[in-house]
Amino acid sequence: MICQTAKAGVDCGFMSKKGCGFKGGACHPVVDQCNGCAKVTDFPSGRYCKIYPEPAVKWLSGKCAMATHIKNDVKEAVQKINPLKASKRASKK
To answer: What does the pLDDT look like over 25-38, one tens digit per residue?
Structure first.
């Protein structure tokens, strides 16, 4: 349903005929860690996340999984080579 509280005019999964079903009756504004994220949208009532109704909870365990402004450190997998197979491949050339 269309939100009638904090994010007026946006389709919200918590909105029902009785009003907002999220705790407190409305979504919570973004926290400082969310600054620079592409998922933050400005509304007349404040700045809110498009995905999470309470962004502060996502930052409690470290970093938000959906944050677009944080780069994930991906380690390259080092492939172990069997020396016996490597010597056989080398001898075939």
So the answer is: 788 888 888 888 88
